[in-house]
Amino acid sequence: MDLSGKFASQITTSKHFYDVTAHRYVEENCCDLGMKVVRGLSADMEDLLTEQGQRDARDFFEQLMFSCEHGLFVTPPVRAPHHETEVYSQTLPSVPKSGEKDVVIVTNCAPGDENLRNMIADFRAALPFESRVVNLRDFPFDGGCLGCFGCAVTGKCVYKDGFDEFLRTRIQNADAFVYAFTISDHYTHSSFKCFDDRQFCNGHRTVTHGTPIAYLISGDYRYESNLRRMVEARSEVGGNYLCGVATDEGDTASSIRTLAGSLALALDKGLTRPMNFYGVGGMKIFRDLIYVMRGLMKADHKFYKEHGIYDFPQKQKKRRPEALNRRGVLRTSRKKSSTPRTFPSRRPTLTHLFPDLSRRSARSEASWKTPTFPAIRAGTMMERPPLSTAGPITHSGSPQRNLSIFSS
Q1: In this predicted model, what pLDDT tens digit does every residue of 183-227 receive, in sequence order?
Q2: Which one, 122, 226, 335, 359, has least CB within 10 Å?
Q3: Is the separation of the CB atoms in 385 and 343 below 8 Å?
């Protein structure tokens, strides 16, 4: 079926956790089909039930019709130039192995995928630790994630194909992970997608935090900007140390040897790095989501409480600037009191606003200190700073005729 020249767009609902990569993936594949792609609508899960969300949906439709009429389309990604793929042969000698660490290589290598198979073999030869290979094509998946949220409550998947046990005993208990796949349609074979989705049985819990991770990728990785973003973001959100990516685009043997050395270094030294924007932003989305839905996502809520992930700004008292505290702008603690709140001892006076008033006569200054004005704030009567019945003082020192009351 020829879809070239057809218009394409998309509407999704989510909590915006890397919705940009999902949209970009669809756009890239539509562009490969020669379609004219219009930027889609990424709405929050509840947006379309609100008046504002429905207005945004109507605005999106108006923009969609305009774009189709006037040719405002998404810029197609840069395609890799056509070239003959060189078959990589195993060349690296095997180094002595240590059994102190367990490294698992998760792949979806097809029987005829000679390049990826030889890359995995060379990596295992160059790695100074024992390793094992888990091929996802061999696992009998009953299906993809249903999004039923049953695991959010119980921590177990509703499928009975044994994936929970498979994931936790054969993969997640390793000291390091290596993901190996061949690029296909801007990602890889569907078995890897099913593996990713079914890991939702862990909920939003970073159960492999701190575990080093590496990638062996066959294909034109340098031309896959969205895939590169996903590889980095995956490690950042999971709290994994990304050791690098080895591909078969150039000096494959050297790239594999370097990656094996990088992974060995991370295991020996226990290397870590602070999260970048991908990790910080992604975890804040999860943090807020789990807290709001803690009644449903009980397993996630318990994990977040135990690991201090609820780092809301109002709880970070030690990070408040001391200078602002000294000035009374911020307070680290506030005792509850049954008496009405009053203004701080350092009341904002007109001499603070107009320093030249300090050179005025004592009579002028005394005249505005006498009366006070009560003000209602949140149902509480509070004393206002004294003001002059003659009105506020201007820069020239002359009173204005109107009476103004300062508002907080």
Answers
A1: 999 999 999 999 999 998 888 889 999 999 999 999 999 999 999
A2: 335
A3: yes
Residues 248-279: pLDDT tens digits? Answer: 999 999 999 999 999 999 999 999 999 999 99
Are residues 143 and 172 in contact, defined by beta-carbon separation less than 8 angstroms? no
